[in-house]
């Protein structure tokens, strides 16, 4: 896929938000890998890679559908993630599927309920998500599952490679802006723990909102 080039005047603020949402966690072994459903199949690819590196012995793929994913994943995000992982030689016995969650909070709470039903009480988890979802996923998990140690991971790729893989620059930038707003908004609403938002991140966010990337904002 070919994405429309990013306007040069917006390169710096987009880079700022891209780097902000990356938690820069070094992978290490945890009890469970949790692949968070989305439009991005690279989440399942990254989960399979980490599984083969023995970063966790079990996987939960979690996610139903959203308006942006139903055409691509008609049987549900988690179901398609599982099918993709099987093609990458992850054994079916290592995978649990949670097919009902429709947002990040439900990804966390329903995964926890599923694991409890299987007699599994993890002390540590790796959340695998889109690159720009890491910080929000981390803050949500720390709020809803405070007694578990949380690491974040995404498929390693540059911003340019990611935009090319999605094939829609405007969509990626709008999602970056929307996830940035959710960092403070969800903390204010009690959905997530507060995260630091440095001035240069706020400035980058304001620049991109002013440039019209408002399609994923919550009003």
Automatic annotation (TrEMBL):
Residue ranges annotated for the DUF218 domain, each copy included: 45-147
Cellular component annotations (GO), alphabetically ordered: plasma membrane
A Pfam match: DUF218
CDD domains linked to this entry: YdcF-like (cd06259)
PANTHER family: DUF218 DOMAIN-CONTAINING PROTEIN, INNER MEMBRANE PROTEIN, PROBABLE PERMEASE
Protein's name in the database: DUF218 domain-containing protein
